[in-house]
Write the C-alpha cells for this entry.
Amino acid sequence: MTEHLSWTPDLTARSGARYRAIADALAADIDAGRLPEGTRLPTHRALAQALEVTVGTVTRAYTEAERRGLVEATVGRGTFVRPHKATTADWMRPGSPPRNDPHSALSLEDCGAENVEPQGPIDLSVNYPARTFLAGALQPGLAGLDGDIGRLTALAGYQPSVGRPEHRAAGARWIAQFGLPAQADDIVPVHGTQGGLTAVLHALDRPGDALLVEELTWPGVHYIARQHGIRLITVASDAEGMRPDALAEAARRSGARTAYLVPTLHNPSNITMPDARRDALIETARAENLMLVEDDIYGFLAETPPAPLAARDPERAVYVTSLSKCVAPSLRIGFIKAPASLVPRIAQAVAADTLMVSALLLEIAMKLIDSGQAQAAARAQREEAAARQRIARRLLPLQEPAGADSSFHAWLQLPEGWRASSFTAEARAHGVAVTSGTAFRADGTDPGAVRLCLSAVPERAQLEQGLTIIADLLARRPEAAMPMV
Ligand SMILES: Cc1ncc(COP(=O)(O)O)c(C=O)c1O
C-alpha cells in the first residue's frame, strides 16, 4: 500500500546537495506554518520514493534537520516536527524592499540594511544583532509606557525637532558611557544612526560638495550621498584606519569640509583605530578645517574602546550612534552629539525630514537606559557576538584585527583567484548569503573580500553550518565554480 505523505517538499528551486535541500525545505515549511508542531514526517523510504532520491539521502536530510533542532526522531515511532523556535519568518517578516536605483552600482540590499528580505536559508549578509534578545530587550520599555495618562498625553503631540529635554538628557547619559561626556543641550535624538547620518550630512554638506570617506564604507552613506548629490572621495587607509596624510591631501584636492569615519569596529574591516591615529586625525581635521562625522554604532561591542574622536575635540567631530544593534533595530532611536553651534542646523535637517523623532519611541529608549536594561541588552549582545566570533575563528582562516573579538561581523579575505562577486554568487548557490566586498567601495571595485555577519542567523548551529559551507568553498579552486561556457 502506498503511504499517504504528510509532507512532500518542493525542491524545484533548490540547488546544491539534495539532503541539504530537503532539510532547508523542511525549515522553510515549518517557518511558513505549513508543518505544525507534532506533524509526523513521511518514512524515509516513502519520501525517497516520492522525491526519486536514495533512502540514504532522506536519512541524511532528517539527521541534518534533527541537528538543526527542527525535528526529533523516536525509534519505532518516526520523525516528528518539534515545538517551534523563533525562525527566520518570525524575525524578518518582509516589508517590501524599496526599488533599486537602476542607474547605480549599489542597491539598498547592498547596504546590508535591515529592511531587506531574507536572502536564503542561511543569511550571513545582514549585520543583525542576535535576535534571541530583541523582544526581551524591548519589553520592559514597552511595559513602562502603560498607565500614566498624563505622561502619554504629553508624549502624544508634536514635539520640538531637537527633542524633549528629558529625552536629550537620556541620550547624553547613554553616550557618556562610551567615553564622551555630554550635556542634554548637545544632543539631537534621531531615527537610528542612518537618520542621524542623514541629518548631519544634510546639515553640513550641500549638493555638489565632497565627502571624504574610508576606502571601505558603510553603504548606507553611499546611499545618502547619492540621494543628496554629495560626491564621495575615498581616502587611503592602512591597518589602523584612515591615513591622516591622505586625509589632508584629499581635503586640499577636493575642497571637502566633512569626513565620515567608523573608528571603532569598522564595518566591514573591523579595524579599531588606536589612540595615536585618532589624535592624528583630529590634528589633521584642525589643520584642514574639516568636521569629522564619527559613526559609533558598534562601539558598545568593544571591551575597552579608545575614547571617541568627539571626546578628543568636541568642536571637530559630530558623534552619531543608536540603540539599533544593542536593543533592537526597530526601536529606531539614535542620538547625535554635536558642537553646540551645529545643533540648530541638525535639528532643522531633522525637521525637514520627519518634523520630529517619535517621542513614544524615545520614551521607551529613555526607560531602558535609565533602568539599566539597555546596558544589559548590550552586554548580552556582546557576549553572544564573542561566542560567534570564536566559532568563526575555529572554522575559517580569518585574520581579524586586534580588538574585534566581539564584533558582529568578520571580513574574509578571499584566496587568490576569487572575485568577491563570484564568491558571493557561489556561496549563494550553496545556500549561504554573504555580502560582497564590492558593496563597501564607493566605485564598486573589488576588494577581494566578503563580509560575514555572524549574529544574523537565529541559532549558532546554523552559523556553524553556513561557515562550514564557506570553508568548503574556500578549499576549492575558483575555476571549479565557473561555468564551462
Ligand atoms: C556603520 C553603520 N552605520 C549605520 C548603520 C545603520 O544603523 P541604524 O539601524 O541605527 O540606522 C549601520 C547598520 O548596519 C552600520 O553598519
Observations:
- The first strand starts at residue 71 and ends at 74.
- The chain has 17 helices and 16 strands.
- Residues 85-119 have pLDDT under 50 and may be disordered.
